[in-house]
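Aim 2, interim progress: modelling of the phosphoenolpyruvate-bound target.
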Amino acid sequence: MSNLVLSSPLKGWIAPLDETPDAVFAERMLGDGLAIDPLGSTLHAPCDARVISVHGTRHAVTLRADNGAEILMHVGLDTVGLGGEGFEVHVADGQAVKSGDRLISFDLDLLSQRARSLITPIVITNPDAFKIIRRAQDHAALVGDFLMELAPVNGAVVTSTVAVGEVSREVVVPLQHGIHARPAARIAESARKFAAEVAVVVVNRRASAKSPIGMMSLAIRHGDRISIVASGPDADYAVIAIVELIEGGMGESAALPPTAEPVSVEAVRPAHPAEPGLLRGVMAAPGLAIGQAVRFVSTDIIVAEVGAGMGFERRALEDALALVRAKLEKAASKGDTARKAILGAHLAFLEDPELSASAHRLIAEGKSAGFAWRRAVGGYVEALRGLGDRRLAERVDDLIDLERQVLRALTGEEDDARVLPPGAILLADELLPSQLMGVEASQVAGFCTAKGGPTSHVAILAAAMGIPAIVAVGAGVLDVAEGTGLILDAESGSLRIAPDATQLAAAQTAIAARHERKAAAKAAAHQESRTADGVRIEVFGNVGSLNDALAAAANGAEGSGLLRTEFLFLERETPPDEDEQARQYQAIASALDGRPLIIRTLDVGGDKAAPYLPIPAEENPALGLRGVRVSLWRPHLLKTQLRAILRVKPLGQCKIMIPMIASLDELRAVRALLDETKREMGITERVQLGVMIETPAAAITADLLAAEADFLSIGTNDLTQYVLAMDRGNPELAARIDALHPAVLRMIAQTCAGAAKHHCWVGVCGGLASDLVAVPVLLGLGVTELSATAATLPEVKALVRILDISACQALARQALDLTSPEAVRDLCKAFAAQVLKVGA
Ligand code: PEP
Ligand code: MG
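Predicted structure of the complex, ligand included:
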C-alpha cells in the first residue's frame, strides 16, 4: 500500500476536525480527518476511487481509494433531516470516479437556512489502516488544492469485503435460521427508532436495516459474518443496538451448524410409490376429511401500466396502503395467537420503507400505483424465490397476499369470497393466508395445494382453524375436476381422488369412530382418572396463560402439571415485578379452583429469549445458560418469582418445579433460596419442590434427585433433544426426533426406577403425555401423572380408564427391547388399536 494524497473536494475554508460542532466528528468517533466550511456547492472526488455508498438522503458519500483508504464526506450537520431536499447526486454506488469528478451538488442557500451547520467533515473511516501524515492548515482552498496525505499503518490489513458507511461493526449471525422474516421484522423495528440510516451488509450486498423484506432478500444464514453500517446523528447507538439484538439471538440461536444445503419441498415430501387415484403431499394441518373438490382459483387483477399523474398515483397508493393497514390492524386485534402473529408479519411487510420507496420510484417514472406496487412486490418475490431457502421462499405467499390486498384496495375489487358447497376440499396452486382467513372454518372440510410448505403461514393458520390440509402435492392436484369426491388424510399426506365405495365407507367409519370417541371422552372428561384395574393416574393440563388454565379446567384437568411461567417474561422489555406475577399466578390458581398447580420457575435461554436478560452470545445456546442455570445466574429474578408464588392462596395448592436440572447441587441451591424466602416472608407451611427430568444427567441420577425432590416430572421435549442430540426446533430433523425412541424410553424407565427407591412420584409434562399412542407405555414404565395439552385431556382420560396396568407393563418391557422409534410406535399403535378396538 502506498501513500495517498487527497485534494480538497470542496471550495471552502479548511479547519481542524475539532471545530466541527458535533461530538461524533470532533471526538473522531468515526475517524480522523478535516472539516471544510463550504463556499462552493459541489462536492468532488478527492482522489481516484470507487463509490461505496451514497446515502439514501443524498447528503453524504463514502469512497474507497484504490489503496483501500475509506473516505467519508458528510455535507453539513444534521442534513439527514432534510430527507434529500436540496441535494443532487451525480454518482451511484459501486461507480468508479476520478479525482475531481462531481459527486454531490447542493443548494447552499437552502442548507444555510435549514441545516444545523454547513461544516463538512472529511473523515478517514478506517483509521486502523491509514493515518494522516500531513494535513492542510486553516486556510481557504479551491477544489483540487492539497487537503491531506495518508500513509498506511504498518502491518495493517485493509479489509475491503464490507461496504463500510460511516460507523460499522461486524457480527456473526447466531440465529439458527439466519435473518428470516421474524428477526428481520425485529431488526427493522429497532432500526426505525434511530434517525440514522442503518444498513446490513453481507459480502458486497446491502439492504436497509429498516426494511424487513430487503434484509430477507440478502438470505443471511446462520454463521454468516455481516456488518451493520450506519450514518447519521445517532449512528453509533444504532449500530450497537442492532449488533446486540443480533448477538442476543432473538430466541433463535442455533445449537447446530446451519443446514449445508437448502432443502426443497421435494425433499420433505415423503417418497412413496405412485398409486393411481392417490396424490401425495406433506401434512400442513392434521385431520381426516371426506368431501368434494372445489377449485380455488384467484382471479387476475388487471392494472394499467401508465399512471394518471404522479400526484394522483402517489395519493392512490398511500390511500390503498392505509386501507389495507387499517384492515389488518382491525383483524389483528381479535382472533387467536396464530392469526395475530401472521397479521403482524403482514403489517411489518406493509410498513417496509423499501417496498413503498421502490413503488414510489416507479410512480415517479410515470407508472400507475397498481403497476408500481405489483412491480415492487414482484422484485422481492423473485429475490426470495431465487434464494434456494425453503423458509424464505414460504414467505413469498405473504408478499403475494399483500400484493393482492393492496391491488384490490386500489381497484376497489371485491374479495375472492364465494359460497362454498358443503364438504368443500379446496384445491389450489397456492392458497394465501388472507384467503383462508376469509372463509369460515365450518365451510371448509380441508385443503390441498400444489405448492406451499409445511411451515408456511397458511399451514399454521389451517392448524389453528382445525382444517386438515396437505401442501406440496404437485401440479396433479390442479387436474382434479370440480366436484370430484375426495378423501383427505392429512396425517398420511394423501389425497384420494374419486374413492370407491369401500374406501369411502372405511373413511366414514374412521371419521365416525373419531367423532364418537371424542364426544364420549368429552362427556366423561370430568370423571376421576383411574385405570381399569384401579390405579390412580392424575391427568393434568399444561398451562401457559390464564386462558389455557380455563380451557384445561373445562376439559377435565385434575390440576396443572406444568405452568410455563415464561409467558409472563417473554416479548417484553423488562421482567414482570412481584405484584404482577403474584396476580397472574393467583388468577391461574383460582381458575383451577383448588386443584393442584405445579408452577415451573422461569425457563428462559436456549430457544426462549428475554430481551432484558443479557445472556452473552453462545456457540450452543441449547447447551448454555437456560432454565435453572439462568435462575442461579440471576438469583434476584428467582427470588422475586418465589416470593410471588408464595403469595398464592391457598399456598397448599401450589408446588414448585425447577427446569433443566443437571445436578443435585442446583436443586439444593434453589431449595436454600426457597427456605430463605419463606423465612423472610414468615411462611412455615411446607411447599413441595420438584425437578424436571430433561437432561440425560438428571435421568441417570434420578435416584439421587428423588432422595431430595418431592416429585420428578419428565420433560420429554428436551429430554429427547438431549438424548438424541437432535435440535427440537430443526424442521429437517422433525420426522426423526421421536420421543418413543428406545433410548428415551430407557431414560424414562431409569427415572422411574430411581424415583421408586425413594417413593417419589414421576410425571410426564412433555409432549409425549399428549400423544395417545404413547400413554400406555408411559404408564407401563411407572409414570403416575400425565400433564397434557388442554385439547387432548378428555381423550387421555378416556384412554387411561380402559387401560390395565399389567398389560401396560408388558408393553413397556417389549418396547424397551426394540431397536428403533418406528418399531416402538408400531407396537404402541397396535396396542392402542387393540384396546380401542379400532384399526391401527
Ligand atoms: C419439555 O422439555 O418437555 C418441557 C415440558 O419443557 P418445554 O417444552 O417448556 O421446554
Ligand atoms: Mg423443556
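Residues 156-165, 255-271 have pLDDT under 50 and may be disordered. The chain is about 35% helix and 20% strand.
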